[in-house]
Structure formats: structure tokens, C-alpha cells
Design goal:
heterodimer, A: 111 residues, mainly alpha, Arc Repressor Mutant, subunit A, two-stranded antiparallel ribbon, 2 strands, B: 515 residues, Fumarate Reductase Iron-sulfur Protein, Chain B, domain 2, 2 domains, 23 helices, 7 strands, disordered C terminus
């Protein structure tokens, strides 16, 4: 299994770069993953990552797109409560890229 | 967007000059031990290897399949290499790899069949193009049987009716059983068995999502439309792909189903146990998994005491349901026999439209000009209604009943000649992105041309895979992800419910008052 280097620690990831063990997550993991994709993490990104982690904690699954956009809309204003805003932040798709940074498993299925 | 070479689109389809080995590198991730064992499949001692005794095991499995499925035996024997299928596959058109000509892809298995199961191949292999089963052959099979979306377009043109999909399914199942299962499908199926759906969306998350949806719809139109979960005694069990809960534009289709049921005044429920219409058992050619997945629907229907089962917008789910549900999970004698078992949501909606019980304002969709993408599994394996060809007419009639502007794509890309979206049959995974982009070429070309010639702005689909695939690949072809819509999203836009638009203060009515 491949690993990523997070502050000198070797952390296991699967073939697609998602954490093998969800408990290995720490903020630096997100930074390292984002840097590898030339993606800067701003406060706006962290709002999403933190929400994903909270939701996962409660429901053991990433939130559906509408659940996420609704939560973002409530927190950051209606004009940001849509998937366009999320795709601007995470061009590879909020479902996949943001989940990866947040240390969540990749959503599977017809999505 | 990651960098991929995107094929050029043209005004007319062009058959590419062949490029030997162009896609030989394409291969999805092999399922690791955890996923193989969840599926009851063996794993090799070392990742990337085959299991001990793979050679004998593969031939044993093949012998078993040939005796069980007469169709496979016939397909192995009957091909005369006429070439009618060669330019009909979207993956060949998009990749130019000659092994993606359906005849050549099938021949990967056929050559082995000849070597071990025919007289000529056993004694004069070179004369009949028979080859030994080697590791190299196995790896080629793994690569190219995951460059077939089991869409069956080639079968439409085959004078013998050879069904490539069936060959692909048989090959994939044998590969899985010698340690080469595909990660994407093998990761998903155990989630269906354990949690109820492909996503692994547990009941509390599903309940929360549906509750949020009720709020959203009420905020939007001022009517409380219900999205019930596990409600015993409801008349209809709605079985829909879990992507409908999760992704866009799928969820807008789900909202459409809810509004139609609301307006029709029927009671309905989703089930947390059968919270998935998809049946990836079909994709991997494994009868037992396909059966287990189907039985969940039976169990849910019995537990909830429903009288009818309706399927949502999902292509291959409808293929399994329409063709096999009775064999896999019947008899359905406990359901109301006055209705089709199972029924497609479009049939339900069309009936409501025909009876005039839906209040429709078509102008709500005037900002779009639509076209319709026939999903392969529905187009070539089923009907939506009880007349031949209803799988083509029903969706178009529903779209045109709720939209003023509609135009079909080129005739040789629709109806039973429709092209796969490029992501069907268990290939909707990021590790096959290059293949997905290239395989979408014929559909993207037809869409671009109808947009140019007739001002089409949006394409409607009735399959979760098609919707997700187009969302991903449209941008590579210079279009935008929101150009793909659900058919019931269009219904949702146009339908006017009783009380809609009035101030929303007295919205705690029950679900069937509106009828």
C-alpha cells in the first residue's frame, strides 16, 4: 500500500489517494494532499472540510450534495449555497476531492 | 479537470483508422483481498498475482458456464467474422483500439474456448486461431472486458444476434473467481448487502437527507411534499438508485417523483433496506449476487406491506427488474395484480398525464430546449409500457408533455441504436476516466450537432450512471455539467401542485390531501 509523508510520518493511502485508516487524519493530511494537487486551502475550503468531518462523525457517510449546499448556504449566505460554489473550491468535485482532503472514504456507486 | 486527450467531434461520425494497442494500458484497479473476500471471491497470496491453480479453475468455470448458459455456447461457436459490429462500439470509435471492436474483444475468450473446447482447436490450434490460456491472455481479458459497458449496441447490428454483453459478463465473473475482481464493483456490492445501497448510506443519513429535501421543497413551492421512508402500509414501494438521494441532477428527479405521487394522491414509501435500485450483480455477471440484491426488494415489499413496486430512473436496474425480477425474487403474488409488476416511474407519470390529473405549466421549462438520451439498458432490453417501442415513446411523450421545446438527436444515435454514455456496465469509476471520456465521443458529437442545428441546450436522461457520467465528461467536450437533467426534474419544474405559490403558512396537510 502506498503512503504519503505528513510531517515525517508515513500515512497509508489507497490506490486513489484516500486515507486507508480514517483515524490517521489530522489537518496536516489535508494540507499535504492539497499541495500534491496544487490546491491552496483557504478558510473557505476549511469550512467545507470541517463540515464534512462533522457530518461523517454523526452519520458515517459523506453528506449528499444538497445537504452540503444547504449547510453552506446557511452558514455562508444563500449565494454560496449551490454546487457551483463548491466546484469553484474543489474543481475535481466536492464529493470526491473534498472528501479525500477531509479523510473520508470515497463515495461509491453511481455518483 | 485532469488532462486527458479528448477526441475531436465532427459534423458527421468518422470511423477511426485503427491504432493497435491504443488502450492496452487501460485497466481498472483490481479488488484487494478485503473486497474479494466480502464477495466470496478468492484472493492471490501476492497482490497483482493470480490464485494458485488459476488455469484449471478458469477452464472449469468456463465449462460450467458453457453448460449452464446455452447462449454463451452459441455465441462462442457462431461468429462468422462478418465485421458488422466492428464500427458500432463507442469505445472503438473513441479509442481506435482494434481490440475494442466487439468481435475482437469477444475473441479474447473465443480463442481460449476454441483451444480447450473444440476438436480443431485442441489438435490444430494455429489453423483456427486458438490460443493457450496464459497470464498474458488473462490480463488482456481484464483490460478489455473492462472496456465494454455491456450496452449491446453491437448486438443490434450482429446478423446472428450475438450478445457481447453476455460474453463480457461471463468473462468478468470467471476473472473475479480467479482473483481478479474489479475494485469498483466489488466494493459496492457488499455495501448493498450490508447497508442497503451502493453508497453505503445508512438509515439515519437517508432519513436526514429526505427530511432536508421536504424542507427544501416546502421552502421552494410552499407545499409540503412528503418523501416517506419505511412507512408500513403505503401503497407503493419506490425503489430508486441511491444516487437520487446524493447527487445532482439525480435529486431533482427524486423531487419530481415525490411531486407526481403527491399530485396523484397515492401513498408511497422508500425503504432503507432496499434503498437502491441498481444491481451491480448484472455488471459482474454473477447470478447469486444479482439474486441476493433482488431479494432485498422482495423482503422490503413484504415487510412494508405494499401493493405495488415502482422503479425510479436507473437504466440497468430497469433491465434487471423488467426482465428478471420474477425469476430472481418472485412470485409476486402478494402484490396487486392489476398493476404492472414492477412498474417504471415514467409509466406511472405518463398515465397521470394521460388521465389529466397533473396540472402542468410547460412554460416553466421554456428556458431550455431538450433532447433525450436513450439509456442503453432500457432501450435495448425492456419496455416502459405494454407496447413494443414504448421504452422510446414513453420518455419522449412525458418530456413533451412538460416542455415546449424538444428535438431528437441524429436517428442513428437514438432508440435502439443509442450510444452508451461511456460509463455504464460498472465502468463509472475514476480509474477509467480516459476510457469514459473517449467512449462518450459518439454521444457528445450527436449532442453538439443537435445543439448547433436545433438550438438544444439540455439533454435529459433516465439513468443514474448516464447522469453522473455526463456531469463529468460534458466539460471535457466544451459543454457544461448542468446541461444534463433528469426527466422527472423537467416534470418537477412544470407541475403545479394544489396550494403552490400561495403563502406557505398552513402547510401541515397530509400527503394525499392534494388529490
Amino acid at each position: 500500500m502506498s503512503t504519503i509523508d505528513v510531517n515525517g510520518k508515513q500515512i497509508e493511502v489507497d490506490e486513489e489517494g484516500y486515507l486507508a485508516n480514517l483515524n490517521d487524519w489530522e489537518p496536516a493530511v489535508a494540507e499535504v494532499m492539497a499541495a500534491a494537487e496544487d490546491q491552496e486551502l483557504t478558510d473557505e475550503h476549511w469550512d467545507i472540510i470541517n463540515f464534512l468531518r462533522e457530518y461523517y462523525e454523526e452519520y458515517q457517510i459523506a453528506p449528499a450534495v444538497r445537504v452540503l449546499t444547504k449547510a453552506v448556504g446557511k452558514k455562508l449566505g444563500k449565494e454560496k449555497g449551490n454546487s457551483k460554489y463548491l466546484y469553484e473550491l474543489f474543481p475535481y468535485g466536492p464529493g470526491k476531492q473534498a472528501c479525500k482532503y477531509a479523510g473520508l472514504p470515497k463515495p461509491t456507486g453511481c455518483v | 479537470m485532469a488532462d486527458y486527450e479528448v477526441p475531436e467531434t465532427h459534423e458527421f461520425p468518422i470511423i477511426p483508422s485503427i491504432m493497435e494497442g491504443a488502450m492496452a494500458h487501460s485497466s481498472p484497479f483490481v479488488a484487494g483481498e478485503e473486497f474479494q473476500s466480502d464477495m466470496g471471491f478468492p484472493s492471490p497470496e501476492e497482490p497483482g498475482q493470480l490464485i494458485d491453480g488459476w488455469h484449471e479453475k478458469f477452464l472449469e468455470l468456463m465449462k460450467d458456464k458453457l453448460s449452464k448458459y446455452r447462449s454463451l455456447q452459441v455465441f462462442m461457436d457462431i461468429c462468422v467474422k462478418c465485421g458488422a459490429c466492428t464500427d458500432k462500439c463507442h469505445y472503438f470509435i473513441g479509442t481506435a483500439d482494434p481490440k475494442n471492436m466487439p468481435v475482437a474483444r469477444q475473441d479474447l475468450l473465443r480463442k481460449v474456448y476454441r483451444r480447450y473446447f473444440t476438436f480443431a482447436g485442441k489438435y490444430f490450434p494455429k489453423l483456427v486461431g486458438a490460443v493457450d490460456l496464459t497470464e498474458d491472455v488473462i490480463h488482456q481479458m481484464y483490460s478489455y472486458y473492462h472496456q465494454c459497458s455491456e450496452c449491446r449496441r453491437c448486438a443490434v447490428f450482429c446478423p446472428f444476434g450475438i450478445d457481447t454483453a453476455e460474453v463480457t459478463m461471463a468473462a468478468r465473473d470467471m476473472l473475479a473467481q480467479i482473483g481478479m475482481g474489479q475494485k469498483y464493483s466489488n466494493q459496492i456490492i457488499p455495501k448493498v448487502h450490508k447497508i442497503g445501497n451502493n453508497l453505503g448510506l445508512p438509515e439515519p443519513a437517508l432519513a436526514d437527507t429526505l427530511e432536508g429535501l421536504e424542507e427544501e421543497v416546502e421552502d421552494d413551492i410552499g407545499v409540503k411534499v412528503r418523501f416517506p421512508l419505511d412507512e408500513k402500509g403505503a401503497e407503493i414501494l419506490m425503489v430508486t438508485p441511491s444516487a437520487d438521494f446524493f447527487a445532482e441532477p439525480h435529486i431533482d428527479g427524486l423531487i419530481g417523483y415525490g411531486k407526481v405521487f403527491h399530485a396523484a394522491g397515492v401513498t408511497w414509501t422508500l425503504s432503507s433496506k432496499a434503498s437502491e435500485a441498481a444491481n451491480f450483480g448484472l455488471f459482474i455477471g454473477n447470478y447469486e449476487h444479482m439474486r441476493q440484491i433482488s431479494l432485498r426488494i422482495r423482503d422490503a415489499a413484504k415487510e412494508l406491506g405494499v401493493k405495488r413496486i415502482i422503479f425510479g430512473e436507473c437504466g440497468h436496474a430497469w433491465r434487471v427488474a423488467y426482465n428478471h425480477l420474477n425469476t430472481l425474487a418472485g412470485p409476486w403474488d402478494f402484490l396487486d395484480q392489476n398493476y404492472p409488476i414492477p412498474q417504471h416511474i415514467l409509466e406511472f407519470t405518463k398515465d397521470c398525464l394521460d388521465r389529466g390529473i397533473l396540472n402542468i405549466d410547460k412554460s416553466e421549462n421554456d428556458h431550455m430546449t431538450l433532447t433525450f438520451h436513450d439509456s442503453c439498458n432500457i432501450a435495448r432490453a425492456s419496455r416502459i409500457g405494454d407496447t413494443p417501442g414504448s421504452q422510446f415513446t414513453t420518455p419522449r411523450e412525458v418530456i413533451q408533455a412538460v416542455c415546449n421545446n424538444y428535438h431528437d438527436m441524429s436517428q442513428d444515435t437514438i432508440f435502439d441504436q443509442t450510444f452508451c454514455c461511456g460509463g455504464g456496465g460498472g465502468l463509472l469509476t475514476d480509474d477509467l476516466m480516459e476510457l469514459r471520456i473517449k467512449g462518450a465521443l459518439p454521444r457528445m458529437e450527436a449532442l453538439k450537432n443537435v445543439s448547433k442545428d436545433h438550438g438544444v441546450t439540455h439533454m435529459a436522461a433516465i439513468c443514474a450512471i448516464c447522469k453522473s457520467q455526463f456531469t463529468k465528461v460534458l466539460p471535457y467536450y466544451g459543454m457544461t455539467m448542468d446541461q444534463i437533467v433528469s426527466v422527472h426534474q423537467l416534470v418537477s419544474n412544470a407541475i403545479i401542485l394544489e396550494g403552490q405559490g400561495e403563502e406557505a403558512e398552513d402547510s401541515d396537510d397530509t400527503d394525499d390531501e392534494a388529490a
